[in-house]
């Protein structure tokens, strides 16, 4: 059997793409390996009707909704390789199966690469985060820290000032801020600290102190650490898809990649902002483009 579309990735983009295509009566296989990037997040925010929903609950509802459509097949296994042979995509999984499809959506997301700072992992998703729109409200009016080894830290700090004006920007020993940027932050009372961070000190997921290499400490109760991103799966590379300078999968407005029949949705192409509502909308939009493309091909070929 050749399916209309295989979707790799069971995050919001992949789930919403499957929903739209399933409702269009397209035969779909959705691969979801059950390791969502946002699993450490206590809840998702900023998505109307789903504000504050936990990640397990979001996924439970999504899978329940997809289960209403008989043309959607959900597979909780990992994809190993993908190849395009004679215009058909062959998707191999860890169970040794090969699924064939006319179209392919890469909704595999990205991996976050955070600075290697002692004590970060137990605090991440509890008092340290990476998206001010996702978690700024919960940390409002608290003494916060922004840690960034690249230029994004300046913009994150300016945005975060809307939620708290007790801020410190730490570059972890990197010279990422211009003199003008430092002056602008300091004019708002934002502390700028450029020496290396030795550790985050906290208890039960709650940040208490930022300890620097010289032994000094700064009391903080939460904050944001800006990561770098890279592709979480090798399938774009396997297929020969072109990447952007930032490392995202290069796409047209429709979501088409540089390889015919391959689409990229969600964080895998755009990298940011990493919000559920953006990824879900991207999956919906791309699914509509794919359905339209399949329809045009079927009419041209005289298929019924």
Describe the SSE topology.
Blueprint lengths: L1 E7 L3 H12 L4 E4 L23 H12 L5 E4 L3 E7 L2 E6 L4 E9 L3 E4 L6 H4 L4 E2 L2 H4 L8 E4 L4 H9 L6 E4 L8 H9 L3 E3 L3 E7 L2 E7 L4 E3 L2 E4 L2 E4 L3 H5 L22 E3 L2 H4 L5 H26 L3
Parallel strand pairs: 1-2, 1-6, 2-3, 6-17, 8-15, 9-10, 9-15, 10-11
Antiparallel strand pairs: 4-5, 5-6, 7-16, 12-13, 13-14
Structure report:
This protein is α/β, with parallel strands linked by helices. It has 2 domains: 2-112 and 228-301, FAD/NAD(P)-binding domain; 115-225, FAD/NAD(P)-binding domain, CATH 3.50.50.60. Helix content is 28%, strand content 27%. The chain has 9 helices and 17 strands. The protein has helices at residues 12-23, 55-66, 120-123, 132-135, 152-160, 179-187, 235-239, 267-270, 276-301; strands at residues 2-8, 28-31, 72-75, 79-85, 88-93, 98-106, 110-113, 128-129, 144-147, 167-170, 191-193, 197-203, 206-212, 217-219, 222-225, 228-231, 262-264. The strands form 4 sheets. Strands 1, 2, 3, 4, 5, 6 and 17 form a 7-stranded mixed beta sheet that branches. Strands 8-15-9-10-11 form a 5-stranded parallel beta sheet. β9, α5 (152-160) and β10 form a beta-alpha-beta unit. The longest helix has 26 residues, at 276-301. The protein is elongated. The protein starts with a strand and ends with a helix. The mean pLDDT is 94.
């Amino acid at each position: 059997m050749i399916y209309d579309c295989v979707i790799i990735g069971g995050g919001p983009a992949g789930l919403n793409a499957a929903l739209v295509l399933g409702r269009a009566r397209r035969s779909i296989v959705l691969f979801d390996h059950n390791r969502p990037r946002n699993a450490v997040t206590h809840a998702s925010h900023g998505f109307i009707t789903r504000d504050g929903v936990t990640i397990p609950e979001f996924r439970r509802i999504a899978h329940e909704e997809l289960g209403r459509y008989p043309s959607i097949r959900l597979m909780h296994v990992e994809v190993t390789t993908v190849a395009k042979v004679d215009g058909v995509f062959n998707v191999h999984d860890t169970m040794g199966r090969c699924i064939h499809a006319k179209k392919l959506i890469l909704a595999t997301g990205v991996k976050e690469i955070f600075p290697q700072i002692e004590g970060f992992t137990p605090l991440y998703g509890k008092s340290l985060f990476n998206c001010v729109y996702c978690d700024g409200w919960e940390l409002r009016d608290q003494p916060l820290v922004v840690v960034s080894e690249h230029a994004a830290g300046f913009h994150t700090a300016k945005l975060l000032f809307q939620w708290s004006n007790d801020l410190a920007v730490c570059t972890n020993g990197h010279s990422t801020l211009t003199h003008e940027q430092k002056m602008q932050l300091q004019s708002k009372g934002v502390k700028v600290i450029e020496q290396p961070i030795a550790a985050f000190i906290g208890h039960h997921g709650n940040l208490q102190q930022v300890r620097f290499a010289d032994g000094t400490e700064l009391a903080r109760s939460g904050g944001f650490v800006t990561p770098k991103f890279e592709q979480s799966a090798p399938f774009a590379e396997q297929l020969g898809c072109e990447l952007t300078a930032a490392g995202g999968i290069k796409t047209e407005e429709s979501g088409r990649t540089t390889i015919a029949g391959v689409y990229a949705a969600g964080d895998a192409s755009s990298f940011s902002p990493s919000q559920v509502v953006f990824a879900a909308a991207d999956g919906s939009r791309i699914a509509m483009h794919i359905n339209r493309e399949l329809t045009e091909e079927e009419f041209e070929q005289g298929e019924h």
